[in-house]
Amino acid sequence: MAEPIEKVSIVISKGSLEGVYPGLIMANGARMEGIEATLFFTFFGLDAVIDKRMDHLKVATVGNPALHIPTIVGGLPGMSAMATKMMSKEMEKIDIPPVREFIEMIHDAGCDIYGCKATVDMFHLKKEDFCEQVDDIITVGDFYEKSAGAQIIFT
Amino acid sequence: MAEPIEKVSIVISKGSLEGVYPGLIMANGARMEGIEATLFFTFFGLDAVIDKRMDHLKVATVGNPALHIPTIVGGLPGMSAMATKMMSKEMEKIDIPPVREFIEMIHDAGCDIYGCKATVDMFHLKKEDFCEQVDDIITVGDFYEKSAGAQIIFT
Amino acid sequence: MAEPIEKVSIVISKGSLEGVYPGLIMANGARMEGIEATLFFTFFGLDAVIDKRMDHLKVATVGNPALHIPTIVGGLPGMSAMATKMMSKEMEKIDIPPVREFIEMIHDAGCDIYGCKATVDMFHLKKEDFCEQVDDIITVGDFYEKSAGAQIIFT
């Protein structure tokens, strides 16, 4: 018998809306199944837990051919805001909440949330810049320690 | 003795040609080694198994400095089509088939192929929109269940 | 007791500066904790170990809303060079060395470094094109074999 997934340790490294949601959805899905979950935000992914930024994440409208928007159009001012509004609306329809609310929900469900120390230092951030759900700012070494027994999923 | 990799559960989340191939190559490589493999398409990655789109995936010619094309050139109409043609040609030379054929081959080799329910709902898609190799549309919870004993690889 | 992470097998598939660093930082962090580590460079990630290119990796200034630079500005000539200079400076401040030096350091710390054969063939590269830290050019099958007992982390 194959061993069931009992714990996941999910890294969120991107700061676009479509770069953040997959990791959140996987963390939430894990908790709903009784699977232990940890979220580790690093690099641009930190934007998703920075208090002043987390409500303003945007969809990247260039560099993603699957959006089916020509670069020359996707790069126009306002396009990203429009795509973001559309995606948020579709998310809402399938009961996926906005980032802040989703993070509160996932944290309430028992998922630990951490920020990456190296990136926090690099971007000159402080613990106070983050939403209250961020349990701690930890090193990569700490991350590995907390990932004992987990599947590491880098998104 | 370290435990050999016996099963991989590969998530494909991007819809550009260069975003889809690594996951397909890893799934195919796994099957060739007798390693069990599952493919799970989510977010823009779904494009790779949508019947009307899978033959038209494109290379992103902006947002990737490693392509060595200035953004101002990469964003011009036709550039993505040209880069796609070039990459497809190089792929063919090293015996990597086009996406549709590759997916058929991987599926024939015993790899299960799934679409992500949340994204399918978000994009208003139906089971009929997918190529016949898609075995089922499943939730993230189902995905974890099917990943028992596997290394989860998010691409 | 949950089983500690004892080995990581990190795939680097992107060639932008911010696409390469997370994998390097995770490999370095692993070695510093006494965790076994392997690096596998594939697709555009190969740029980070190509002798003539590894000193010139650039930040992508479009397609990443978390950079907070409008696409129309991010696409201007010179923007990527400027953002690259800024990021490199911040990296230096937190004691993260430039890519070449970092790879030497990680390799010296006992991390094996491999290039992906399929991509090497696709891009018409040769073993001589790579920095000396690249131990070998291996297939995906070899990669899985070398990943026995490891957490596979795709970045």
Can you characterise this structure?
Three copies of one chain form a homotrimer. Chain A is an alpha/beta fold and 155 residues long. The first copy, chain A, has a domain at 7-57 and 103-154: DsrEFH-like (Hypothetical Protein Ychn, Chain: A, 3-Layer(aba) Sandwich). The first copy, chain A, has helices at residues 17-32, 71-74, 79-93, 99-108, 117-122, 140-146, and strands spanning 7-12, 36-41, 112-116, 136-138, 151-154. The first copy, chain A, has a five-stranded parallel sheet with strand order 4-3-2-1-5. The longest helix of chain A has 16 residues, at 17-32. The model of chain A has no long low-confidence stretch (mean pLDDT 96). Chains in contact: A-B, A-C, B-C.
Task: Give a quick set of tags describing it.
alpha/beta, 6 helices, Hypothetical Protein Ychn, Chain: A, 155 residues, 15% strand
